[in-house]
Design goal:
Strand content: under 5%
Number of helices: 4
Protein name: Helix-turn-helix domain-containing protein
Organism: Streptomyces luteoverticillatus
Structural class: mainly alpha
Radius of gyration: 25 Å
Helix content: 40-55%
Oligomer: single chain
InterPro entries: Homeodomain-like_sf
Amino acid sequence: MPPHRSLTHETHRPRRSRDGDFPGACAPKWANRYRRHGELGLGDRSSTPRHQPTATPSELLVLMEELRRTHKWSAVRIAFELAQSGTPIIRETVIRHLAEIGINRSRFADSSPQR
């Protein structure tokens, strides 16, 4: 790009396939899916990972819920206590999981599990 062009000038244009329907990188991907799987290969796919090796173990989730319900500790205290017992976990992770369970507010910590 010459240095005299204005910043408002469009600098990126996606390449098109021969028929003009798909950007250049998409057409071969869809063709390969059709060759491998036929019509089923053209359907929608889930974008969620099949396996997440860094996921918080379910035993730890149960322990966090138990600590919250029995002691009514904050996420900071739960993270501290778990770190003291040899399980380092950051506060944000505890906050996220307590919110997923539905006991992120102290008034909800008294209720029974709603799974």
